[in-house]
Amino acid sequence: LLLGFAADHLDADLWGATADTHAEVMLAQAEPWAAAIGQRDSVAALEELEGAAENLEAAHAHTLTRVRAGGDVAHASSLLARLTLCLHALATVRGSASEHRRMVEDSLGALDLDALDPLLTIRALRARGALRLRQGQSTTALRDLDRALQLAEAEGRAAAEAEVLIELALHHHHRREPVSYTHLRAHETGRNL
């Protein structure tokens, strides 16, 4: 509602600044909730994130439009990736699988992932890779996860590397492939044992 009013009554520059501020305020609230989903006692975080979903979706739609329009979009690209990850966390638990897939693919497809903060790129690739795995697109999923793993390793991001390895281990488990950590690392990094 606020964004609609602002779009109708503010000049383009002021409207863009207002929309960015709205996205930043929403992210300040939503990112901790999204991070808590899947952890012990995350019901309250899920309810908070659900309550913020309409505002997050509005901020996401506006930011996606700005990124697609081009120009100086470095800040908007970062906001779009972060909004996508918050909505991804919610959609993983609730929502339409096809809308979820479309939102992630459209959003990340509009971004130059290499221009983002490396940790944000790792998280985005991991999210898209995990989603693609769940939807049976293993070739592209493994490409995303492998890229995320290589970047996490190169950046020295042990926690992010572990999260990607968990996604890969789950994939191998669901395929009934016995795998140890050593074999998984060797397989995913192309090393021979």
Give an overview in words.
By secondary structure, the protein is mainly α. It is globular, with a radius of gyration of 18 Å. The protein has helices at residues 2-9, 12-36, 43-69, 74-93, 97-109, 118-134, 138-155, 158-174, 181-189. Helix 2 (12-36) runs parallel beside helix 4 (74-93) and helix 6 packs antiparallel against helix 7.
What is the rounded distance between the termini?
Answer: 58 Å
Sketch the topology as an H/E string, one letter per element. HHHHHHHHH
Roughly how many Å is the radius of gyration?
18 Å
In percent, how helical is the residue content? over 70%
Averaged pLDDT, please?
A: 84
- Low-pLDDT runs of 5+ residues are none
Number of helical segments?
9
The coarse overall form would be globular
The major beta sheet can be summarized as: none
Structural class: mainly alpha
Tell me the β content: under 5%
Q: Count the strands?
A: 0
